[in-house]
Amino acid sequence: MYHSRISGLGHYVPDNIVTNDDLSKLMDTNDAWIQERTGIQERRHVVKGQDTTTTMGVKAAQVAIDRAGISKDDIDFIVFATLSPDYYFPGPGVLVQRDLGLSRTIGALDVRNQCSGFIYALSVADQFIKTGMYKNILVIGSEVHSTGLDMTTRGRSVSVIFGDGAGAAVLTREEDTTKGILSTHLHSEGQHAEELSLIAPGMGKRWVTDIIADADPNDESYYPYMNGQFVFKNAVQRFSEVIVEGLKANDLQVSDIDMLIPHQANLRISQFIQQKFQLSDNQVYNNIMKYGNTTAASVPIALTEAWEQGKIKEGDTVVLAAFGSGFTWGSAIIKW
Ligand code: UT7
C-alpha cells in the first residue's frame, strides 16, 4: 500500500467583493449583526458571464497542478466536490477534463457532500492512490452560491453567510508511509437531511414540471433552507468528535496538532473548537471573515492560504475537519 500526499494547492475567488454594508442595501441586515453572529466581513460573488463553479475550479486546479510540478496530462483521475454544479447534469468533473484540455480520457467523479465535500473527495482520491490504481489525482472543491440565494429580507439568515470560490489539490503517490494522508474519517446522519437543504428542482418532492406549472414567485423551495441553531449545535459536537476520532486513530493528542483547518461555517464554531481543544491562534486557520462560507471550497481555500503564508511546514500534523448538510461530516489527518 502507498500513501498519498498533497503535492500542489491552489485557490481562486472572484474579484467582486460584497461587503456586509452592500448586503444591507438589499435586505434588512447590518454589519454588526453579521460580524457578531458569524465573523464574516465580506464575501466574493461571481459576476454573470465571468465565472462559474467549473471555471473557478479549473483556475484553482491550474495553480495546484503547476505547484505540484506535474503536467496536466499526468493527472490520472478527477474528483470534483460541489453543491452548485454548472449543469444539473453532467457534473463538473467532466467539464474540468474538457476545459483543462486533457489529452487522456481519464475518469471524472462528482461528489455531492456539501460542506464536507472536499474531505469526502480527498478520502476517495486517497483510497485510489493507496491501492496503487492512480498516481496523481486532481481534487477540486468549488461553489457558486450567490446566483441561487434569496437576496431579500426573507432569506437573510442564509444569504449573508455564503460566498463563492474554489480550491484545488493534487494528490500524489507517496512511497514513505509515515507521510501524507494518515487517515480520513467520514460520517453521515441522513435523518437531518432537510435541516440544511435545497429541495427544488428535484425528482422527489418538487418536479420540474410542477415548478413550471405553478410558476409561483413565493415558492421558497428553490432557495437553500437552514435551521441555523440546530445545525450550529450539531456542528460543534460533530467537529469535536471527528477531530478526536482522527487523532485517536493515529495515536496523536490534541497537542500534536500543528494546524487545524476547520470548514469555514461560522467563526463562532471555529472559536468554540479552538477553545475546547485549547489551541493557540497559530494552530487554527480561519478566513471566513474574507470569504464567508464557501461550502466544499472552504477547506481547500483555507488550506491553500495557510500553506502560502508559511503556516504549514514539512513534518507538521495538519487536521482538516468539516460538517454540513446531510448531515455529513469528516476529518483528514495529514503528516505534511
Ligand atoms: O456550513 C454548513 C454548516 N452551517 C453552520 O454550521 C451554520 C450554523 N448556524 C449558524 O451559524 C447560525 O445559526 C446563524 C449565523 C445562521 C444564525 O445565527 P443565530 O444566532 O442562530 O440567529 P437566529 O437565526 O436565531 O436569529 C436571531 C435573530 C432573529 O430575529 P428575532 O426572531 O430574534 O427577532 C432573526 O430574524 O436574528 C435575525 N436575523 C438577522 N438579523 C439581521 C437572522 N438573520 C439576520 C440577518 N441580519 N442577516
From TrEMBL:
Q: Which GO terms describe its biological process?
A: fatty acid biosynthetic process; secondary metabolite biosynthetic process
**Domain description from the entry?**
The last Arg residue of the ACP-binding site is essential for the weak association between ACP/AcpP and FabH.
- From the UniProt entry, list the residue stretches annotated as the region ACP-binding: 264-268
Question: Catalytic residues?
Answer: 115, 263, 293
- State the oligomer form and interacting partners: Homodimer.
The gene from which this protein is expressed is fabH
**What keywords does the record list, in alphabetical order?**
Acyltransferase, Cytoplasm, Fatty acid biosynthesis, Fatty acid metabolism, Lipid biosynthesis, Lipid metabolism, Multifunctional enzyme, Transferase
Gene Ontology MF terms: 3-oxoacyl-[acyl-carrier-protein] synthase activity; beta-ketoacyl-acyl-carrier-protein synthase III activity
Question: Where is the chain membrane-spanning?
Answer: none
The protein here is known as Beta-ketoacyl-[acyl-carrier-protein] synthase III
Signal peptide (residue range): none
The record's function comment reads:
Catalyzes the condensation reaction of fatty acid synthesis by the addition to an acyl acceptor of two carbons from malonyl-ACP. Catalyzes the first condensation reaction which initiates fatty acid synthesis and may therefore play a role in governing the total rate of fatty acid production. Possesses both acetoacetyl-ACP synthase and acetyl transacylase activities. Its substrate specificity determines the biosynthesis of branched-chain and/or straight-chain of fatty acids.
Q: Answer yes or no on keyword Cytoplasm.
A: yes
Against SUPFAM superfamilies, the record matches this protein to: Thiolase-like
Q: Which residues form a coiled coil?
A: none
Acyltransferase among the record's keywords?
yes
Q: Which HAMAP family match?
A: FabH (MF_01815)
Tree of life domain: Bacteria
Outline the extent of the Beta-ketoacyl-[acyl-carrier-protein] synthase III C-terminal domain.
247-336
Record's Gene Ontology CC terms? Answer: cytoplasm
Provide the family line: Belongs to the thiolase-like superfamily. FabH family.
The family database entries (PANTHER family) matched by this protein are listed as: 3-OXOACYL-[ACYL-CARRIER-PROTEIN] SYNTHASE 3, BETA-KETOACYL-[ACYL-CARRIER-PROTEIN] SYNTHASE III
Q: Which residues form the Beta-ketoacyl-[acyl-carrier-protein] synthase III N-terminal domain?
A: 109-190
